[in-house]
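During the reporting period the student researcher (J.K.) took over the structure-prediction task from the postdoctoral fellow and processed the backlog of single-chain submissions. One of the processed entries is reproduced below for the supervisory committee.
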Amino acid sequence: MTTKDTEIQARIEQLGRFFMGTSDVHLAMARVVKTLEELGISYAICGAMAVNVHGLKRATEDVDVLLTPEGLSKFKAHALGRGFVEKFPGSRGVKDAETKVPIDFLLTGGVPGDGVMRGMTFPDPKDVAIESAGKRYVDLATLVGMKVASAMTAPDRPRDFDDVIRLIRSNELGEHFADGLHPYVREKYRELWRIAQMPPAMES
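J.K. obtained the following structure tokens:
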């Protein structure tokens, strides 16, 4: 077996573990959640791991977590060198020291996408978190809003639009769901909702 074949086999095995809930990403998520809860820090898992909780199954290689700036400071003060390392000196994100899985932190008050203020910011996790299987995730409206806003200004993130279209389908969301979203993303959500009503493209 060539090196390339070995790498492909390892990726396939990791993908299988992901959908069984035993992947390195799941292990890293469990460790960061345990640390946050032990420190009494409010958090809400977002990104692809939240997408999975909200009914759309897809794999990912990192963990995204919403924190307040104060929560991040407390986490780093207590957790760096104790199971977590900075991605690089002074970075906001960290890596799980054992699995090397990246953990990216989104901060309350931060701006989705390109970082240019358009009125929409990341919320306080305690205001938008729901519990599932003992962990806290952003609620569906927050997840959809964050993904739409991110993709609207970050051209390298088209998958966020695809996630929203598939979340609309898997959750049977209506066009009226836009009414509960931030005004900045409502019209784009309605556009994606109309796309979601089309038959899915056949994959070759």
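The committee noted the following: The longest helix spans residues 3-20.
J.K. will present the remaining backlog at the next meeting.
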